[in-house]
Amino acid sequence: MQELAADGRLSNAELAERVGLSPSACLRRVQELERSGVILGYRAVIDPGAREIGFVAYMAVGLSVHTKAAQEAFERGVARAPEVRECHNVTGTVEYLLRVEVADLAAYKVFHTDVLGTLPQVNSIVTYVVMGSPKDERA
């Protein structure tokens, strides 16, 4: 699994060689990992510049009401927002941590005001602007 996590485009022959299996045994194992849901999918990692992403921020979002209904309504709201690339329900002083990717500061302001600012469950927002990512293993 480590080899595939590092490079999902490995050919079956290359993967088999790296893990010390025959190609047919390797293929069977990969297919079983896919069937059983261990491997959830494959994706390309796209350069943010190619997607015109010039502004990335993490947002800590606190809700005004701490109910299941409020959480579900908030989650539906952010699920509709393409700017939100990740949404995590976390412990601590806030309920959610979002990763937001937009073209620039002006686009972020629109998102902050017109998307998050219109969700009635939102009580607090703290933004952490990403200045660089010396290590990022998301795929």
Which characteristics define this entry?
139 residues; alpha+beta; Arc Repressor Mutant, subunit A; Alpha-Beta Plaits; 2 domains; four-stranded antiparallel sheet; 5 helices; 4 strands
Summary?
This protein has 139 residues and is an alpha+beta fold.
Structural class category: alpha+beta
Q: CATH topology of the largest domain, what is it called? A: Alpha-Beta Plaits
Radius of gyration: 20 Å
Largest sheet: 4 strands, antiparallel
- What's the number of structural domains? 2
User: Helix amount, in percent?
Assistant: 25-40%
Strand content: 15-25%
Distance between the termini: 14 Å
Task: Report low-confidence residues grouped into runs of 5 or more.
Answer: none
Per DSSP, the total helix count is: 5
Inertia-based shape: elongated
Can you say what the CATH homologous superfamily of the largest domain is?
Answer: Lrp/AsnC effector binding domain/regulation of amino acid metabolism (RAM) domain
Tell me the series of helices and strands, N- to C-terminal: HHHEHEEHE
Sheet with the most strands: spatial strand order: 2-3-1-4
Find the count of extended strands (DSSP E, 2+ residues). Answer: 4
CATH class of the largest domain: Alpha Beta
CATH architectural designation of the largest domain = 2-Layer Sandwich
Mean pLDDT: 93
